[in-house]
Amino acid sequence: MPLTHDRLDFIQPTLNGPSADLESALSLAIHEHRLLPGTKLGEDELSEIYGVSRTVVRTALQSLSHSQLVDLKRNRGAFVSQPSVREAREVFEARALLEPRTANSAAERMTDAALVRLEAHIAAEHDALESGEPGKALRLSGHFHIEISRIADQATIAGFIERLVARSSLIIAIYWRRQSALCEKHAHHALVDAFRRRDGAEAEALMKSHLLDILTALDLREVKATNGSLRDILKP
Amino acid sequence: MPLTHDRLDFIQPTLNGPSADLESALSLAIHEHRLLPGTKLGEDELSEIYGVSRTVVRTALQSLSHSQLVDLKRNRGAFVSQPSVREAREVFEARALLEPRTANSAAERMTDAALVRLEAHIAAEHDALESGEPGKALRLSGHFHIEISRIADQATIAGFIERLVARSSLIIAIYWRRQSALCEKHAHHALVDAFRRRDGAEAEALMKSHLLDILTALDLREVKATNGSLRDILKP
DNA sequence: GCGCACAATATTGTATACAATCTGCTGCTT
DNA sequence: AAGCAGCAGATTGTATACAATATTGTGCGC
C-alpha cells in the first residue's frame, strides 16, 4: 500500500551528498511558495542555516539555476526566479503541446498500481488542503502532472514536463489572481477516471482543458508587486 | 553580412567567468566528436590543461552534467555521457514531436535576415566538410536545428530542442553506422527553400522526414564498442 | 597458481582562506 | 542642494588544503 506522498517523494535521502539535500530543501520551499520569486538566497546565510560550507551551498544553487528555479547573477548572488509574462505564456504553450499527448500515452500504459498511486496522490492533495497547508497542496498538484508523465514512460519528455511544472509553480506564485480558487481537485479526479477507463482520447482532452483552465486563471500582466530583488525590472 | 558561423557562435567570450569558457570548450569538443562517449574527464587533468583550479573545472562539469553531456558519478568522476538505445529512441521521438511544429512556426515568422543567417550556416557546413573537418560540420548541422528553433521565437521550446540536439550528437557518436553517409546538406537546403517561400506546412513535413532519415540511419543496437567507462554496461 | 584481505595510491568531496567585484555611504566640489 | 569621487563594508569568485572514498597493487594463506 503506497504511502501518502510526502516530502520523501521529492527528497531522496543523502545518497548524492549534502548538496542534493540542500537542493531538495530549497526546491521544496520554492514549490510550496514559502520562498517567493525575487527572494535573495545569500550563500553565507544558507551555509549557516543548514550547517554546511559555502561550497555545498554553491553546488546546490548552481543546480537549482540549471532547473531554472533560481536565477544566478554573476557577482550579485542567487535569487528565486521571476518568470516574465512572456515566459509564462511560453511555459503553458509548451505544456499544452506536451502534456495532453503524454496523458494519452499514460492512459494506454496505465497499470492498476499506477492508478492506486494517482488516487493516493489526489487524496494527499485533499488532506493538505484540509489541514491548512495550501503550499503543500500546490506542490502536490504539480507533482501529479509529473507522476502522469512518468507513467507515460518517456523519461525524456517527463524531464521536460518536470521543468515546466517547476517553472509553473513560480508563475503561479507571481501571477495567480486571488479571487479564482485553485480547484484542481475536480480536474485531477476526472483525469484519473479517464485513466481508469484507459480512455486515452478523453484523458488528452481533459488535460488540454485543464491546462487552459490554469492559464486563464492567471493574471498575466507585468510586475505583480515584486518583492526582494528590485532594480531589475527598471533597468533596460 | 553575417560571419561564417565559427566557434564564436558557441562561445560567448568571458562574461560569465572561466568556468563558462571551459564548459564551452568541452561542449565544443564533445559536439565535434573529439571527446567520445565514455571518456573520463578527470578534474586534475582538466585543471592542468586549461590552467585553472579544480573549482572552476568542477563548476563546468556540473553544468555539463545538467545539460546531459557528461555523466557525473559520485566519488567516481565525470564521463562523457553514453545514451542508451532506449534513450536514443526517446530523444528522436521527442524531436519528432517538437521540431516539425517548431519549423512551421519558424516559417511563419521568417525574416530576410534570418534567411541569410540560415544560408550562411549551410555554407559553413559545406565548407567544413570540404576542408576535411567532419566534426565541425556535424556540430554545425546540429546547430542549424537550434537556429531554426530560435527563429520560431519560443525560447522555452528552443531550450528543449537545444538539449535534444546535444544529446543527439552523443547518440550519433555511438550509433552512427559508417556506411550511410551523413548527407544533411540536401535536407537542410530543402528546408531553407520552404522557409524562403514561407511555406509552413512544407517545412513541417520536411523536418519530420529529415528527422526520420537521421533515425533510420542509426544502428540502434546495444553497445557499439564502448571505449573508456566499462563495467557500467556489464553490471546489471 | 588462485583468491582474498589489506595497504598504498589516486581521485573526488568538503571546508577554509584569500582575491575580485559590487553596493552604499561619506564628504567634497560646484 | 545636487552630483560625483572615492573609500568602507559586504558578498561573491577562485584557489588551495585537508578529509573521505574508490581503485589499484601487494602479499599472505590455501
Strand content of chain A: under 5%
State mean pLDDT of chain A (0 to 100 scale): 87
Helix run count of chain A: 9
Gap from first CA to last CA of chain A: 55 Å
Structural class of chain A: mainly alpha
Low-confidence stretches of chain A: 1-12, 227-236
Biggest β-sheet strands, sense, barrel of chain A: 3 strands, antiparallel
List the strand order in the largest sheet of chain A.
1-3-2
Oligomer: homodimer
Total strands of chain A: 3
Bulk shape of chain A: globular
Biggest chain contact: A-B, 23 and 23 residues
Number of domains of chain A: 2
Q: Which CATH class of the largest domain in chain A is shown?
A: Mainly Alpha
Helix content of chain A: 55-70%
Q: Which sequence of SSEs, written as H and E, runs from N to C of chain A?
A: HEHHEEHHHHHH
Q: Give Rg of chain A in angstroms.
A: 18 Å
CATH topology of the largest domain in chain A: Four Helix Bundle (Hemerythrin (Met), subunit A)
Report the CATH superfamily of the largest domain in chain A: GntR ligand-binding domain-like
Q: Assign the CATH architecture of the largest domain in chain A.
A: Up-down Bundle
Features:
homodimer; 236 residues; mainly alpha; Arc Repressor Mutant, subunit A; Four Helix Bundle (Hemerythrin (Met), subunit A); 2 domains; 9 helices; globular; disordered C terminus; DNA-binding
Summarize this, please?
The first copy, chain A, is mostly helical. Chain A has helices at 18-31, 43-50, 54-66, 85-108, 112-130, 134-151, 155-175, 184-196, 200-216, and strands at 40-41, 70-73, 77-80.
